[in-house]
Design a protein that fits this description.
279 residues, 76% helix, mainly alpha, single chain, 12 helices
């Protein structure tokens, strides 16, 4: 059963809550960091994919999808705070009575704001490098950004639900595994799945659009187009994480889940479940 992984989800939510309560600035900076990691993944993916796109090779998208997995590895092991994952973590913890809904909303807003700031700041770093100035280098990124900005609203909405459902699984499934090798393989495989399927991830789109907008771009790429995409995608991502992961797993496991206390130490470390029960 996935009960142990759900305990880790709850523990992760409580650790994030403790950081938020101790220092809003630290919490937001962790969100900025996560968005920068996503930005690195975007650059790696589209630089790799462009090598094939320039030759009209159909492997452009699969190669981009494969290499984008670098982003989730950085977030998992380097401590970034991503809005899309928090829609799952905080919903589950709140339903289990360990977090209050007003604070869940506050923390979602803080994470989302930090992710947005990180995406914009990273884009300006990329602009300063001059690495995406030429169309021979940025053509693949521009073609993808253009399609995302001009897709129908309802299609974006449903793509984003499926996206965060799968992305949250990319964080959740490794919690059931032992060893870094199986965890990394699973994360890369599931992130590859979301990317290659054409689903919509609000924070990845922020980074993609920000880089596209600060680089020389066609008229079909615009700030209005970015807003047209981000709003329904954000709503869909919330539903994918909160409903299809948080609410669903809470309902499925409620009869089997013992109400064990989980504690987080002052240094932010999660107290093991058996130790917490001894107190």
């Amino acid at each position: 059963m996935e009960n142990q992984a759900l305990r880790e989800v709850e523990a992760c939510a409580l650790k994030k809550q403790k950081i938020f309560n101790q220092s809003l600035l630290r919490y937001i900076l962790r969100a900025v960091l996560a968005s920068a990691f996503i930005g690195f993944g975007v650059i790696i993916a589209f630089k790799t994919g462009n090598l094939f796109y320039a030759e009209h090779n159909p492997m452009a998208y699969p190669m981009a999808a494969l290499t984008f997995g670098a982003a989730i590895i950085m977030i998992w092991y380097a401590g970034g705070d991503l809005f899309t994952g928090n829609t799952f973590y905080f919903t589950y913890a709140a339903l289990h009575g360990k977090m209050k809904w007003p604070q869940v909303l506050q923390m979602w807003l803080a994470t989302y704001g930090g992710n947005l700031v990180g995406a914009i700041a990273f884009a300006f770093f990329i602009a300063a490098t001059g690495l995406f100035e030429d169309h021979s280098v940025n053509g693949f990124l521009m073609s993808v950004a253009e399609k995302k900005m001009n897709a129908p609203t309802m299609e974006l909405f449903f793509r984003s639900i499926l996206c965060n459902w799968l992305v949250c699984m990319a964080f959740f499934v490794p919690m059931n595994l032992k060893g870094d090798g199986p965890k990394i393989f699973t994360m890369i495989l599931l992130v590859f799945g979301f990317f290659i399927s054409g689903y919509e991830h609000s924070i990845a789109n922020m980074s993609t659009f920000a880089v596209a907008l600060v680089s020389p771009h066609p008229e079909t790429i615009s700030f209005a187009g970015a807003v047209h995409n981000i709003i329904p995608v954000t709503i869909g991502n919330i539903i994918g994480g909160a409903v299809f992961m948080g609410m669903l797993y809470f309902y499925l496991n409620k009869p089997f889940f013992k109400d064990e206390e989980i504690e987080v130490a002052e240094d932010g470390q999660v107290v093991p479940f058996d130790k917490a029960q001894e107190k």
